[in-house]
């Protein structure tokens, strides 16, 4: 959808902002450009909508060389979000959001209806916020309006320059989550600039890590964190990259342990026999329809009665596909030695700290070798 071919930008004062840049962004893909200040990220982005012209090389959007497209027509097809939202201070939120549809000749009522729809999509009630002016909004709300405005004409491509940069970390994480949900629904091709590696990893399908004026590594978050291509990238992603990796590694069924399962209404002695046979000290307890209830220990089950007499509630669970970080968070929050992993309501297995560690190690190995995680085997301390 977006393709750079050997693009160089040299400013009149001799500064080379980017050198021989070649990369491509697939349709519907979200690529983050990350790197230290002054490395050329913004220059890269602004060449896509021709706010900056390259010195040499070519850039294609949807197969068309942008140099051959009228810049005004080009920008109508490309949404642009900048830090602080870049809103017009003297226009209401609704009119700000309706800017592009109005520019391309939509009737006022249609443009405003579309703007209201978009405000709703970014979590702002149009009847409350539509009539306000930008300075009557919080920083996070202004940024949402910026995103709504960029989406208003339904452009296939979205350029975002530090769109969540100007808010505190909590609001920032909220905005990122909302944006990811929205992106999953509307699936635009997105190029997003950030200097924050956490944000790059969290949002990007792939990440371009910039050195000075060129890309040092262009790969998935898992690969960048697990197998940095150069020592520069390793330094940039930081010594705690394994921790960051927790948030991008999704739980797969092959990661899970399968402890014995007992039903609430079965005789405890029968469950205790099963635990003994499997050499386990506890069982996961499911209710009559197979939903997670909690757990029960071998000792208590051995004293007879029904499983329900001994079962303890357990609320630590995550859906399959959640990140290892979420699973670890649940464990800590519930002070639990394991979390259940569910597919909808169906119990799939449990993640223990040892299994979590194993999943992390296998994902690093899988990325380095380019194979699926389920195929990676190794011995862990927990097996010994
Ligand atoms: N108009 C200009 N004239 C001369 N040099 C420029 C101009 N615009 C940018 N530069 C230089 O080009 C280099 C890349 O700038 P760019 O804005 O693309 O970096 P960036 O990675 O987006 O940085 P930041 O994260 O600080 O915004 C920098 O050295 C910058 O000083």
Automatic annotation (TrEMBL):
One Pfam family hit: ABC_tran
Entry-linked SUPFAM superfamilies: CBS-domain pair, P-loop containing nucleoside triphosphate hydrolases
Domain ABC transporter: 2-237
Keywords per UniProt: ATP-binding, Nucleotide-binding, Transport
Superkingdom, taxonomy of origin: Bacteria
Gene Ontology molecular functions: ATP binding
Gene3D superfamilies found in the cross-reference section: P-loop containing nucleotide triphosphate hydrolases
Family statement: Belongs to the ABC transporter superfamily.
Protein name per the record: ABC transporter ATP-binding protein
Biological source species: Streptomyces lannensis
